[in-house]
Amino acid sequence: MINENDPSTLTTSGRLLNYNEAIKSGLETGLTFTKLMDQLIKTHDADELVAAATQLADFKLDSDYVTFPHQYSNADYYLLFMSRMLELHDQGKHVMVQSRDHHEELTQQLTPLGDRGTFSFRVETSENGGVFYRERATGQSLFYLNLDRKMFRFNSHALTQLFIIDLHDTVPADTVKASVQILVDFARYLKEDYGYSVDFNVLDAANQQNYAVRSADLPAGVVDRLFVAAAKNEYMLTNGVNGNGAQIQLDRNVVVDIFNNQLEGQPEWVLTVHDDDQKVSWFDILLRYPFMRDWYLENLDDLEIVSDPLIFS
User: What domain of life does the UniProt record list for this protein's source (predicted)?
Assistant: First the structure.
């Protein structure tokens, strides 16, 4: 008896039929891909956009019998998604997607920053999944995005290294602020449109935001050095509530506190920024006040704002 599922026993017609069906299946996969691409590129519906991006991020175009020689990587579809998301909110002019000649690879520039930064996504291969948005020349991963888990996390270390340190001497603070605001807006749209869990981290301007610093038990000398720096710049640093930590009032009723947030048990030192309009973040403080920036960077081993430890080790 002939087993029709055993290739060695198939008739010539059976082999050709199987081959033809495999070709059809491969071509159908290609058509599905083109429909998703149309949806990603053309839709004006936010839900359709994220649905297309989520499928394309894991799409496998090739089959055993049909291969497509010119393909973008899965990471590139995240760039298209980000650009389209901004476009749907009338922010499309703030990013520019570029493609290399004779090679299917996309990169992105933040318009205010120009050629001072080129960005792309890198797929995370661990069980966490998702992607990292990185500056290609420095390798700094500014944020993490996971479409399946509806998760977005900023990385304070990379933001500080790239924008506060590397570009400090060559890019004006206003340009840095405008560039970073594009990333903040993208995260905000994900939160507002899709209910994503977003950690704005060092970019969070909410008054209730506590920025946890790296050193849980902050050395006394760190705060003492801020007293000295503030006095030299004609600002008054006062003791915090009950003598816990310190407080400095800057311009326009902006107040920065550094204090032990857990007086009993295990200590946890945090920074907070308060302003009337809740528009100033710790990142803004580092941009606006050189003496605060210098103090922060000189004590970075203790003061660096902690990012999500499950994502950024």
Answer: Bacteria
